[in-house]
Amino acid sequence: MKHSMYIDGKWVKGQNFFLSINPATEDTIAEFPSATSDDMKRAVDSAEAAFDSWKSTPAPKRALCLQKIAQLLRERKEELARTETQEMGKVLKEARGDVQEAIDVFDYMAGEGRRLFGHTTTSELQKKFAMTLRQPIGVCGLITPWNFPIAIPAWKISAALVCGNTVVFKPSSDTPLCAMKLVEVIEKAGVPPGVVNFVTGSGKELGKEITSNKKIRCISFTGSKETGEWIIQNAGLKKVGLELGGKNGIIVMDDANLRLAAEGVIWGAFGTTGQRCTAASRVIVHTAIKDKFEKMLWEKAKALRLGDGLKDTTDVGPLVNKQAVEKVESYAQIGREEGAKLICGGKRTGLKGYFFEPTIFSNVQKDMRIAQEEIFGPILSIIEIRSIDEAINVMNGIEYGLSSSIYTQDINKAMTAVEQIEAGITYVNSSTIGAEVHLPFGGIKHTGHGREGGILGIDEFSEMKTVYIDYSGKLQKAQIDD
Ligand code: UN1
């Protein structure tokens, strides 16, 4: 079925179309317009025209729309989750989790409508009052990935709207149907025309318009490091928030609860078929328990059942598309060539669909490409270490800094890791995935900058105005008057 874009409160047809494919069956599930830069310009113009009225709508009123969106998402949760499984492959339970994350963040950000706190402080002069207040930025360009096709757009749209911004939303071309259904909900919730515009098509063409269009004041992007770098180089003086992936590690010390750690590693590495920015792709294991732990991981990985995510019996779904399978396959080959020991997986399944077996490499050296580069698929590298210091050194010896974890019963080692790991997120005795919406989410180093979720998610989409009110009735000079 051919679908439309949503510009200025109207569903708009396109000229040319691209296909959305079910990665488990390779069937086409929908067709979406390949928008041109002119379509994007119209969307930006409509967002700009809607800005004045939306920003002057009181924040608690804007928040009512967010509450309504959360409610409608709740009502459509099962349908949206099924669409998500069909469009990008993750197993249904996880797809429900993604929709739930969207509900949670709309609920949370609706609450912000009655906070949006600034602060008050003292002044160095008498009869002078000082405070800050939040103001919207303007038109925001939101560019979102396919791996959390409802939750990640929801993080951005909820925060942008409650702060009083208007939006052009360009979803990944792998998941336009999920994005469209979110926009349908937004429309039904009574968000006024022009406040959210939805444009589908090529990232290259539309990305150029988003970065160069002077009316866009802020860009928020989640996706690959290469695209993030391109955005930063081309966005001029716009405010840019970037979340660009990771090479997340789990440290397993010799005193860890190994059963718990093995469960966490398998969940972090193969949940969502390894296609999370937060996925665990390195496990940094103490030498004293390495052989035993490796065997535990092997047993668990072997037991995982691959298949269509709609089936109850499936543990691991397909990768998102053909290029993803080719990329993962090439990393399996790189791992072999680098001399790592393949202990399971390493190949496609031969089934129809974009499947790849859960793969574990052992004897991985910290500088190998499979231990350094983001693979975004079900490949886990086991790296052996002898001490907590060496573990932290390995953990930090990468260009990214998103999520991290340590399994240990020793509070001293846990706190050393919390303090010294270079990452936006550190878990203790839990896997690298599963961030909650009321806490900040984001990373350091080449993972990007900015935080989504929680109160810091509000910072991304608002500017602080500093206000001084002098009620002394005379000219007072800061830094000069006594
Ligand atoms: C991502 O992979 O980009 O913490 C987001 C998690 C999820 C979000 C992941 N709540 O794994």
Describe the structure.
This protein is of the alpha/beta class. It folds into two domains: 5-244 and 447-467, Aldehyde Dehydrogenase, Chain A, domain 1 (3-Layer(aba) Sandwich), CATH 3.40.605.10; 248-428, Aldehyde Dehydrogenase, Chain A, domain 2. The chain has 15 helices and 22 strands. It has helices at 37-56, 59-75, 77-88, 92-112, 151-162, 176-188, 203-212, 225-234, 258-270, 290-303, 322-338, 369-372, 388-396, 411-420, 454-460; strands spanning 5-7, 10-12, 17-21, 28-33, 120-121, 128-136, 139-143, 166-170, 196-198, 216-222, 239-243, 248-252, 280-286, 341-344, 359-362, 379-385, 400-401, 403-407, 425-428, 444-445, 448-449, 462-470. The strands form six sheets. Strands 14-15-16-13-12-18-19 form a seven-stranded mixed beta sheet, with helices on both faces. A six-stranded mixed beta sheet has the order 9-8-7-10-11-21, with helices on both faces. Helix 3 crosses helix 4, helix 4 runs parallel beside helix 5 and helix 9 crosses helix 10 (290-303). The protein starts with a strand and ends in a 12-residue tail after the last strand. The mean pLDDT is 98. Bound molecules: 2-aminohexanedioic acid.
